[in-house]
Amino acid sequence: METIAIMILGIGAGRFFPVKYKAINEKLQLCCTLLLIFSMGAGLGQREGFFSELLFLGMQSFLFFLIPTLFSIAAVYLLTKRFMSGRHLEKRRVVREEKHAGAAGVGDPMVFMALAALVLGIACGAFPAAAGFLAPLISQNQWFLYILMFSVGISVGFHRGVFAQIRQYHVKILVIPAGIIAGSLVGSVVCGLLMHYPVRQAVSVACGLGWYSLAGVTIGNLAGARLGSIAFLSNLMREIGALFMIPYLSRHFNSYTCIAPAAATSEDTTLPMMIRYTNEETVVLSVLNGMICSTFVPVLISLCY
User: Fold this and answer.
1) Taking the CA of residue 193 as centre, how many other CA atoms within 13 Å lie in the half-sphere pointing to its CB?
2) Coil/strand/helix, residue 42
3) If both were cysteines, with which of 38, 173, 209, 268 could 121 make a disulfide (CB 3.0 to 4.6 Å apart)?
4) 10 Å Cβ neighbour count for 153?
5) In whole angstroms, what separates CA 272 from the centre of its chain?
6) Residue 213: its pLDDT value, please?
7) DSSP letters along 67-81, please?
8) Pair 288, 112: CB distance under 8 Å
9) What is d(CA 60, CA 114) in angstroms, rounded to the nearest whole number?
């Protein structure tokens, strides 16, 4: 809730923030995003047994990431196309095209910078000397998240009509988290059938919805270290994968679909990609979705055991 409160403060500040500093604010978001991805990578590199887990359980974890995520994307796209496509659809399409205008044909460097930050972080975290030097950065990385959320709030605050647009949807805003959860659960059943896991175990892995730290520890305690490792890796892959899926989804689907792969992470770590590739309305819906999905994660996992 701290991050949400900080974002709300940023929205208030954005109403008075000088427009001439908008570009500086966007660069601040980029820097904070890359630092967060780097610190996440460094934390993974330090994790005992991370590379052995990735080697032996990588393919199963990848399938537990990919299939539920694809089902979530399909569910959210179909549901939002049916219930949330309205008079602002054309406006959102134009906004996305304007944001992508400079990147057509050459690719967006943001994707490559994010990947480089992640790989560099893992490499640094794997070396004890570098890991010790980076320990303060890793332990205090929540401050980068706070700065990022405040900066994103400023970007939302620039656009005063955002909340009026969202109010038009009423309870329809629940369509997105409902689609994400339903798609993840159906996809996890498919994974269980393909890899011969009991249904409740397969479903519990996908119930992490990208919250890898909670899912890994909780499922590890409930079902053993092997399934806990798969839950950790698959949900980690979902968070990282969302960073690279969002640009593609924003080009080929409606902006709401970009929230689907992010799931519970859509309120914080994947949020900068939302604001870069979608629009302020989707950013607010993304935060709401992240709150709802995060609330359901422990509930859904507990229902499986």
Assistant:
1) 8
2) helix
3) 38
4) 24
5) 9
6) 80
7) HHHHHHHHHHHHHHH
8) no
9) 24
